[in-house]
Each structure stands twice: as structure tokens, then as C-alpha cells.
């Protein structure tokens, strides 16, 4: 038997057989060394939490309701928590009723349950291009045919969605749903403009579309601005996904779905088959956090922390990047999306970047169609401010060197990078 052959291969379900870890994953193991400034993982800065307060909250749960906290719970999640999550949504202007909600193990489980609820192999699902790697992963695990709609500084180009819908209709195909991250998108760092939200809602009505609105970052606008949610505009057509990962802590693995009732019922059945129920312990920690702490103040603190880090990164990019490199300007959350000049392939460059002690996520992982080889995601949420400067300086040096090489070989006519499939991997935290 060859060692590189998986002896279980013939036994796997077909949808699992083609799954493989990205070659990028091995590099991320190196990228977590302390000498490397990692812009790879989409990790919140949990050091911005007051740990004594969190300790108190967790201890209070065990002290006052330990037997319940350590018991099984219901598949929909605790009613007390759902009531409080409705208040979190209301703080952002998103309407909901506690009965509409299902508590999930992070937003990620919600995306997986939604995909398994709606997608048969080969079904078309439309997503922004680029889009969240974990969203692509959930869709791939159901063998969806993911079609992308390009983005610009105002988010998804909704008129191009209209074109894609017409093209699909001509092929006799209907998308199962449109997956979108309207606020401070991962990885593009841009938001869907207000006009486009209304246009998307209109298209949803005209084409009888279902929208999956994934919204982990809506409360993390640097100036506290919120735009109308799709759920607000066309509630019967929207499955809304929220999470406490970015406004409290990803370690509690608490997310939720707000869905029309028939969909909610199916999702509860699917979740019971997957994991019976969410953890009572972490639900009660989140509940106690929301009920007893000024959580809105913590949200403001996170906004400040990320605003400072974003400014640091943008100033450093301006100073350090060679001509021809462009990037998006985030107004909230975690991400800057970078495009490099022709001739540089960000997947191939990553190993050298890590030698230069800086890491990012190559763009291809954010597309289902292998494009994005000239793009990369930089996440500034986790490294300290001084490290962000240092990391961008290192990346700038590398890109200057690389561009000099490309020019020496090709002059000004370097070839475009080619599409190449890459398994969706983004490092820790998506
Ligand atoms: N959606 C998006 C767009 C994300 O960026 C993430 C995490 N990075 C998630 C969903 C899932 O996060 P979690 O499971 O921690 O809620």
C-alpha cells in the first residue's frame, strides 16, 4: 500500500471524496510562529474584553444555575437568550421576534444548516465574489454550484446579479438562494450601499429569490452607522445569520438564525440531527453577559480598537506599497482587500512572505472558481498596532522586490495570473 493513498477513499460519501486541505494550510502552521506578523486569521481582539468581568459572569452561571448550565437544552436554543439576541438585533435596527430565532454554534453552523436545508448536488447558489471562505466551505460540502457576482466599493454589483439571473433563467436554472454579507464584507472590507440594498430587495421580489444575509460585522461600523438590513426590507425572503463572535467572543460559539417559521422548523430538525442542542453553558454565559453588562459599551470599545488598527494599516499601506498595488478602505470590522499588479501570484508568493515574517490569505480561497490569484486579504483585527506597521513594512519590501523581478523578466507586459482552484482556507477564525 502506498503511504500517500487513503485506504478509506472508496468508502467516503461522494461529496466528501474530493475534499482536501488546502496546501496553504501547512503554511499557516508556520505563520503562527511569534516572529511572523499574521494578517491571515480573522480573529477578534479578545484582549479588548475585561477578563475579570467575563470571569465573574461565567462563575455566576455555575454558582447560580450550574445544574441547568451543565444539562441538555432544547434544539431551538434557550428562550431567555433568544429574547436578548432580539435586543442585539434591535440595537442595529434589525427587526425580529424571539420565536423566529434558532441559537447555533456560531454563524458557521447556521451557514452549514442553511446549505444542507436547501442545496442538492449541482444546485446553483449565488454569492459575492470574493466571499467568506467558510460560506464557500458550507456550500461545497453540499456540492453547490457557486456562481459569483463581482463587487466594487459599494458591495455586490446588483445590476450584474440581474444579468446573472437572466443568464441562469436562459439556461433553465434557478438559484436556490443568494448568499450575501452586506456589512463590512469578509474578505472585501466593503458594505452594500443603501441604494443597492433596496435594489436587491426589489430583485428578490421580482425574481422570487431567497436571500441569506450573513451579518457578523454590522455592529462594528467605526462611526456606529447602520444601513437597512435586507431582513428589514423583505423579511419573508431573508434568512438572517448573526453571531456573538465579533461583539463578545468567538470562544462561546454562539450564533443564531432568524428565519421565516417554516424554514425555522426545518433548521431545528437539521440541527437536532447534527448536535441535538447548543451548549447550555455558553448560552447562559452569553445570556448573563447581555443581561447584566453594558454590552453596548463593549461594542463601542471594539469599534474603537478596530478603527485604530484599520487606520494604522491604511496609513502603512499608503507609505509602503509599490505603485500598482491597490486596496479597499474599510469603514468597519476587520479586512482590507488588496490587488497586486500583473505577474504576481499571491498564492505562490505566500511562502516568501512567511520567510519575510508576514502572512496574509491569498485571494483564491475566497472564490469558488479559482480566480483571485492577484488578490489577498489582510486582516488587521488581531495584531497589535506596532506589529501592524511592521507587517505592512515587510510586505511592502517583499512586493517591491517581487515587482522588480517581474519587470526584469517581462518589462511592462507581465501576464495576468491564471485561475487555479484552491481549497477554501483562511487560517484560524475564518
Ligand atoms: N460569516 C462570516 C462572514 C464570517 O467572517 C465568520 C467568521 N469569520 C462567520 C460567518 C462565522 O463566525 P462564527 O462561527 O464564529 O460566528
Write a structural description:
The protein is of the alpha/beta class. The chain has two domains: 153 residues, Alpha-Beta Complex (Aspartate Aminotransferase, domain 1), CATH 3.90.1150; 225 residues, Type I PLP-dependent aspartate aminotransferase-like (Major domain) (Aspartate Aminotransferase, domain 2, 3-Layer(aba) Sandwich). It contains 14 helices and 14 strands. The strands form three sheets. It has an eight-stranded mixed sheet, sandwiched between helices. A four-stranded antiparallel sheet has the order 10-11-14-13. It has a two-stranded parallel ribbon with strand order 1-12. The longest helix is centred in the last third of the chain and has 26 residues. The radius of gyration is 22 Å and the shape is globular. The two termini are 36 Å apart. The model has no long low-confidence stretch (mean pLDDT 95). The structure holds 4'-deoxy-4'-aminopyridoxal-5'-phosphate. 4'-deoxy-4'-aminopyridoxal-5'-phosphate binds next to helix 5. The site of 4'-deoxy-4'-aminopyridoxal-5'-phosphate (PMP) has 16 residues, from helix 5.
